[in-house]
Amino acid sequence: MKRKLFTAVLISVAGYLAFDYGLPETSAKVGLALERMRCGLEARTTQIGDVEIAYLEGGPQGEGVETIVLIHGFGADKDNFTRVSAYLTDRYHVVIPDLPGFGDSTRLMDANYEIAAQVERLHGILQAMDIKRFHMGGSSMGGAITIAYAASYPAEVSSLWLLAPGGVAGAVDSELFAEYRKTGKSLLIASKPEEFATVMDIATEKEPWAPYSVKHVLAHRAAADYELHKRIFDQLGSQADTGINAAAAKVKAPTLIVWGEKDRALHVSGAGILQKIIPHSELIVREGIGHLPMLEEPGQAGKDYLAFLDKLLK
Fold it and tell me: Of 145, 154, 74, 159, which Cα lies nearest the Cα of 116?
């Protein structure tokens, strides 16, 4: 009996690997759909003018239900928040868009991707989706957009969740920005698929598990986006010295700042600077974690965020 069970398991694993390696695009699509379902999310799209916005949505809706809007970072997409959403969708209405230029949303090749422009673009998206008041979270570039959004539209934002937000002026240069200032090359951009491993290395200390198919699809998409993302990174890099400090000083919403102590993309020294600037803020620095806390330890990140919301909403 045990031998038959072992053989059946072996055949199943071999079949899965053959599918995953042989048809990576199809396997990745199926795998992502199953993971989103497990985390209480569904993939949707909406057309806003000539731009199609892809987004994930889940959780209860209706009177008395709080909404959380989550914004991904540079070179990332909505699925950076999929696993942590498993801790949120039982109680909250969760919306996670792909910003234009990223993920499955429309690429705007000649658009302005500076933080202020993305804020206005995002505001238009949320207004079109009839999302008027919400808690807002953002990772890296998405964190900078979140801060600027709260400063520009304070009446819409109930609280902020900032996961290593970009653009904190006065922070120590990270490995990423030291290399960029020296060579003009961003370690978060892959010009060919085989360079995607370097992107993941700089972005995470504890790289989250993903099957071959998902890594394959992400690597090829990153390479296809090389020219656009290089242009976007250069636009963002030109703002690095002025940063988002002035916008952060205008934030009135209660704020949870989370930063990985091993962050190589944005130096953890930015955490203390930001906490001093934002009046009603608290800080968690996670030991042994890199640039993406919600991906590297989704369980802990989710529990910390729920605890923050519980205190806020009790």
Answer: 145
Strand ranges inside the chain, DSSP E: 41-48, 51-58, 67-71, 93-97, 134-139, 157-163, 255-260, 281-286
Catalytic site residue 72?
yes
Catalytic residue among 105, 140, 186, 213: 140
pLDDT of residue 15: 67
Give bridge partners of residue 139 from the DSSP assignment.
163
- The whole-angstrom separation of Cα 222 and Cα 85 is 24
CA angle 61-126-103, nearest 5°?
Answer: 100
Q: Which of 72, 216, 229, 267 is catalytic?
A: 72
d(CA 156, CA 173): 33
Q: How confident is the model at residue 288 (pLDDT cuts 50, 70, 90)?
A: very high
Q: Are 138 and 145 in contact (CB under 8 A)?
A: yes
pTM value is 0.95
